[in-house]
Amino acid sequence: MPEKDPHFDSLFPRRALDRRAFVVTALGAGFAVAVQPIAAQTVVTTDSVGLDVGEIRVPTPDGPLPAFQARPAGVGGKLPTVLVVHEIFGVHEYIRDVCRRLAKAGYLAIAAEMYARHGDVGKMKNVQDIIDGPVAQASDAEHMADLDACAAWAAAHGGDPERLAITGFCRGGRTTWLYAAHNPRLRAAVAWYGTLEGPPTAKQPKHPLDIAADLKAPVLGLYGGADQGIDNDQVADMQEQLKKAGGRSVIHVYPGAPHAFHADHRGTYRKAEAEDGWRRMLEWFRARGA
After folding, report:
1. Could you tell me if residue 189 is inside a domain?
2. How far apart are alpha carbons 28 and 177 in whole angstroms?
3. Separation CA 257–CA 241 (nearest Å)
4. Which end of the chain is more exposed for a tag (fewer CB within 10 A), N or C?
């Protein structure tokens, strides 16, 4: 398990970690209902040739957490590990493909169903119902604990705990920033257009802008200059805080790119920016030993 962070209680109060059984015990197939119809002309599909892929169960105090793993097949020795944090739509086909892409690049990639205690987001039709339901009900403390459990599973199943990284998209991008402030063994993080600020709540007491000075691993933020949900002022505020914290973490902005520009199954997809961001992510990981 990752070392205990002495600041964990202040960042994510224990009262927010209410023990409850998982509502979702297995991953669904295909794409999440709420992202239909799929923009078939832009979908990136990565095959499993040369890979070991499949659904796993990650042990947690609340029971087995469903997750997806992908890795190169037949590789000896410990593999660098990337925790993949999905958007609000769960571990649907897009996230599984991201894991396969990372496996093709030589990583053990694990994506856990982060809202499994609160509902099956993959089957929910209305985006607002997802946001008001499982997303609002899940706590940051739960997410940190579940990611710790995934890191522990990886270390026990062929992953190298000294080469641990994380990446996340949208809401998962926000979680990526938080995890970089939580786990001192993390080597590197890449956050794709994750929300940076917001009002504190009991379950989400702090946001990335609040913990910029507490980051234990360097974070690369990838953001769209035309993101209607994360405006340029919010990004500029975070960039300023990162500079004050020493400049180990940086944000790259793609002018004109919308939110979710990496989501190849949606109309927001921007091929050039998505491919450039992927290249930057892999370079960021490798340059920092992950």
Report:
1. yes
2. 27
3. 23
4. N
Cite the active site residues: 170, 227, 259
34 close to 125: Cβ distance less than 8 angstroms = yes
State the Cα–Cα distance between residues 234 and 197, nearest whole angstrom. Answer: 7
- Domain that includes residue 207, residue range: 25-287
Q: CA–CA separation, 235 vs 138, rounded Å? A: 25
3 assigned to some structural domain: no
Cα 5 off chain centre by? 20
Overall domain count for the chain = 1
Q: Are strands 108-112 and 63-72 parallel, antiparallel or unpaired?
A: antiparallel
In which order are the strands placed within the sheet that holds 63-72? 51-60, 63-72, 108-112, 79-85, 159-169, 186-192, 219-224, 250-254
For the stretch 50-104, pLDDT in tens is 999 999 999 999 999 999 999 999 988 899 999 999 999 999 999 999 999 999 9
Q: Report how far Cα 178 is from the mean position of its chain's Cα atoms.
A: 10
